[in-house]
Write a structure and sequence with these properties.
The protein is about 40% helix and about 15% strand. By secondary structure, it is of the alpha/beta class. The chain folds into 2 domains: about 110 residues, K Homology domain, type 1 (Ribosomal Protein S8, Chain: A, domain 1, 2-Layer Sandwich), CATH 3.30.1370; about 220 residues, Rossmann fold, CATH 3.40.50.300. Strands 9-8-10-11-7-12 form a 6-stranded parallel beta sheet, with helices on both faces. Strands 1-2-4-3 form a 4-stranded antiparallel beta sheet. The protein is globular and about 65 Å long. The chain starts with 6 loop residues before the first strand and ends with a helix.
């Protein structure tokens, strides 16, 4: 039996005057999910109150929201989005609630909840989880991943650039729309010189590729990851291993691309083959190669290729950080000192 949506008993308050006071009521039909919706000891409601400056009282399956008009309107949107996420079977952890609150300032939130013109919400399904956008820019990014051949994802740490790309790659590998998943990054230390690492070639380069493994294991069961790596369906290698190849029928991701040289970036981009998709992720402000940003292959490629047909460039900012909220504040503090 289809679930009924949450009902709001008052018209949504307008957001024209944030100083005006408003009140709204909502009623939720599914009593079984109220615990997850409200959070342990109403932690989710308290988080919304603190972030939006409203007061929320819950009695049974009814919620009343009071406060500034703009805050009440956003709180209603947030609760609707949280409710929709739960009835679709997705998790609702504090990070998800925080992200929904951030997105409530964007006009796109309703599109995530109900889908544009009746279309299904934007999401990526993998064997282990379903990923939905956690920022307005991630909406744009997910659309580009589903439609463009080459996608540049630029921005600070914690914005989901690599994670979302790996999720999309795993989804396409599972459905058979690509035959291989190739993950790569330059073997460059972040401000350190580690010297010669022990072991064979795989053991030497694995530390540099660990973030890609982490994202992969989060989207697929470990035994499937190992089996697909052994069969060659999934390949994880430093960028130097890409020279001379044509990457056809593949989803190719280059992470930490700001640490490529111009020559490496040109070599990598020209590996593009038929029925492939290529995603290049990096933070133009965190360049660890000699010469700094001026010598970065990522910065050079973006300058050359912006506006070229078939290529999308998504720019994330500190406002799109979806890790713990303090990560966004840390990034903002460092960027402020660099200006």
């Amino acid at each position: 039996m289809a679930r009924k949506p949450a009902r709001a008993h008052e018209a949504a308050p307008t957001r024209s005057d944030p100083s005006r006071k408003a009140r709204a009521e909502m009623e939720f039909e599914e009593a079984t999910i109220l615990g997850a919706l409200f959070g342990q000891f109403d932690a989710n409601l308290v988080l919304i109150e603190n972030r939006l400056g409203v007061f929320i009282s819950a009695r049974g399956n009814r919620v009343q929201i009071e406060g500034p008009e703009d805050g009440v309107a956003r709180a209603r949107d947030v609760l609707k989005a949280m409710h929709q996420r739960l009835i679709q079977g997705h998790e609702l952890d504090p990070g998800a609630v925080e992200s929904i609150i951030v997105m409530s300032a964007e006009p796109t939130l309703e599109g995530i909840v109900s889908g544009d013109e009746g279309a299904p919400p934007i999401m990526i399904r993998t064997r282990k989880k379903t990923i939905v956008p956690r920022s307005a820019t991630q909406i744009e990014y997910m659309k580009a991943l589903a439609s463009r051949d080459v996608i540049f994802a630029l921005g600070p740490a914690g914005t989901g650039k690599t994670y979302v790309a790996v999720a999309q790659a795993v989804s396409q590998l599972i459905t058979g729309s690509v035959q291989r998943l190739i993950l790569s990054r330059p073997a460059v230390e972040a401000g350190e010189r580690l010297g010669f690492l022990p072991g064979d070639m795989k053991e030497k380069v694995d530390p540099y590729l660990r973030p890609l493994y982490d994202a992969l294991y989060d989207c697929m069961p470990p035994e499937q990851v190992e089996r697909r790596i052994a069969s060659g369906e999934i390949e994880i290698a430093p960028i130097a291993f890409m020279r001379g190849r044509t990457l056809a029928d593949a989803f190719v991701i280059l992470d930490e691309a700001q640490n490529t040289t111009r020559e490496q970036m040109k070599m990598f981009l020209t590996r593009f083959g038929m029925n492939s998709r290529m995603v290049i992720c990096g933070d133009p402000k965190q360049v660890d190669i000699p010469g700094g940003p001026a010598m970065s292959g990522l910065n050079d490629a973006v300058a050359r290729l912006e506006g070229v047909e078939g290529i999308a460039i998504t720019r994330f900012s500190v406002a799109d950080v979806v890790r713990h909220p303090i990560v966004g504040r840390i990034v903002e503090a460092y960027e402020g000192n660099d200006q």
